[in-house]
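Quick one, tokens below:
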């Protein structure tokens, strides 16, 4: 790895330590929904062309269109761009042979990315002002195609949205990858869609929505595919940036909304350099009258990047006013989180979900022994550390653990007949909700958290192994092995209704191995109808392939972690 990309910038374990330690205030804000997330092109760089490639597409298009016609408006536009925006060396190369000129590589064009807006600002004959963006770049296909798949950044952000800790996200990106990631995790036929905000009509339509609000301040290529009326919302060239939000411009409403947002909320910046002047103006307007007071322990702006860029420092100057001048070095140092977006997002997901489970577990009434409860909490912390250490080499592991294990586990626990029907967090909302919401106890969420804690504890104990089932017809089931000789499937459910749903699964109806429905509430196992296979006997008696147990007294019997394992083993006959 090059010196410009030191390993710690991509290290999830390092990110987890930073948000647990020196940047714990950032974690506290995010997990309570108190940070506005600002996103730029950096989070989509592996899915859509970066700005250097966008510039290259413009140059290649003009060169191809001017082939054999040196007097065409395309050749004239190309010549103007080369001579106005590029180095003497590139100009000389072009002048030596305009017809045979080789467009520079993407790497060679990287020093010019800050000029992308001025390059797109050049006109081509009598074509519309946005011709280079609309036709040469082909923004609708390049950034708005349905074939473009989200990356890990988008999926992790979508998980945090569904967790209910990102109420406001502002993006300059034209792509629709945040939206598609969010919708891919939605429950079919229900659930609250993400509120995508761009036009006046959007704000009217979503004014009562409780879902995440995504402010697309530079327009949307996906919606540009839906109709010409969205073309004017695309912001790309210098004139677009200068006119943005001014009288007669269609962005006036979103400027108003985002300015109000930034007046009252702290910010986390990912993949965004703030090189466009309109972005700096938003933050300057928001803090001109009421600048933020500098607090070393809780910076109003945190930028996750390898270094602060000019746009970042301009934002900090406007945010803190005189406090910036008198604390310049300290403000810059404490406002920079030396990480790329991906490891930071992974660390936030790991930590926030872990803390939610821990907060619910602490409310488990049947788990009265504090030392035992502490053992389960420590197991959750160890799991977070282990996940952070393997997340770099296995970036898919965290997503798989959440979407194919924890979420199906929760759906089956609540009695959902389709455990793969969208992402279901253990509790949706800020961390404080997990600690105080009375509805959590009504929905038996402390019991669910205790199951997760127990499974973590068992998996970390010698001789035990806990796995989740990958097959769709077994989603939500947990496989527990002991000493590599005894294995069984378990469906953890909260009540009688959920138990009845679990017993309709094929793994229960036609058992080929031991399967248990473990009910977390109740005092006795009612008689169930006989197994469909006839030769199984009554499905409730231990020793048969399929039977039901009640787990609530497992917690009551245990006074130590050793007791817990003994009680669980006896109850499950494992």
């Amino acid at each position: 790895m090059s010196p410009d990309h030191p390993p710690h910038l991509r290290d999830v374990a390092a990110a987890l330590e930073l948000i647990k330690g020196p940047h714990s205030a950032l974690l506290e804000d995010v997990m309570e929904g108190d940070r506005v997330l600002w996103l730029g092109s950096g989070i989509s760089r592996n899915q859509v062309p970066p700005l250097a490639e966008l510039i290259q597409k413009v140059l290649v298009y003009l060169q191809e269109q001017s082939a054999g016609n040196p007097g065409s408006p395309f050749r004239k536009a190309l010549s103007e761009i080369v001579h106005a925006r590029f180095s003497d060396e590139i100009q000389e190369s072009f002048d030596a042979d305009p017809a045979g000129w080789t467009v520079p590589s993407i790497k060679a064009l990287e020093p010019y990315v800050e000029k992308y807006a001025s390059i797109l600002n050049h006109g081509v004959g009598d074509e519309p002002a946005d011709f280079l963006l609309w036709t040469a770049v082909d923004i609708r296909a390049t950034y708005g195609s349905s074939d473009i798949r989200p990356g890990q950044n988008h999926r992790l952000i979508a998980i945090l949205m569904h967790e209910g800790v990102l109420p406001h996200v502002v993006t300059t990106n034209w792509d629709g990858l945040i939206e598609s990631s969010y919708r891919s995790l939605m429950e079919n036929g229900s659930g609250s869609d993400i509120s995508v905000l761009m036009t006046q009509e959007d704000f009217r339509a979503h004014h009562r929505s409780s879902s995440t609000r995504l402010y697309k301040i530079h327009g949307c290529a996906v919606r540009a595919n839906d109709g010409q009326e969205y073309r004017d919302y695309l912001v790309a060239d210098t004139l677009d940036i200068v006119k943005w939000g001014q009288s007669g411009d269609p962005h006036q409403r979103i400027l108003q909304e985002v300015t109000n947002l930034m007046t009252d909320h702290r910010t986390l910046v990912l993949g965004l350099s703030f090189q466009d002047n309109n972005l700096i103006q938003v933050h300057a307007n928001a803090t001109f009258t009421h600048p933020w007071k500098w607090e070393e322990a809780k910076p109003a702006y945190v930028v996750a990047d390898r270094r602060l860029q000019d746009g970042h420092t301009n934002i900090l100057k406007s945010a803190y006013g005189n406090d910036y001048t008198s604390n310049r070095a300290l403000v810059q140092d404490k406002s920079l989180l030396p990480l790329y977006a991906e490891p930071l997002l992974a660390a936030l997901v790991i930590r926030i979900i872990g803390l939610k489970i821990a907060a619910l577990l602490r409310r488990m009434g049947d788990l009265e022994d504090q030392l035992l409860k502490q053992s389960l909490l420590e197991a959750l912390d160890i799991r977070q550390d282990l996940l952070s250490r393997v997340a770099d080499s296995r970036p898919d592991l965290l997503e798989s653990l959440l979407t194919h294990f924890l979420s199906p586990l929760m759906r089956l626990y609540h009695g959902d007949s389709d455990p793969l029907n969208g992402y279901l967090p253990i509790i949706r909302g800020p961390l404080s909700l997990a600690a105080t919401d009375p509805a959590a106890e009504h929905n038996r969420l402390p019991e669910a958290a205790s199951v997760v804690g127990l499974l973590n504890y068992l998996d970390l104990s010698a001789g035990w192994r806990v796995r989740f089932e990958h097959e769709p017809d077994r989603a939500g089931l947990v496989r527990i092995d002991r000493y590599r000789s005894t294995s069984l499937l378990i469906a953890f459910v909260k009540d009688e209704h959920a138990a009845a749903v679990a017993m309709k699964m094929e793994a229960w109806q036609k058992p080929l191995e031991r399967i248990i429905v473990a009910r977390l509430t109740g005092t006795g196992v009612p008689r169930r109808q006989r197994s469909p296979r006839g030769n199984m006997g009554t499905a409730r008696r231990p020793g048969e392939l399929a039977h039901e147990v009640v787990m609530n007294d497992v917690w009551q019997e245990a006074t130590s972690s050793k007791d817990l394992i003994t009680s669980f083993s006896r109850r499950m006959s494992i």
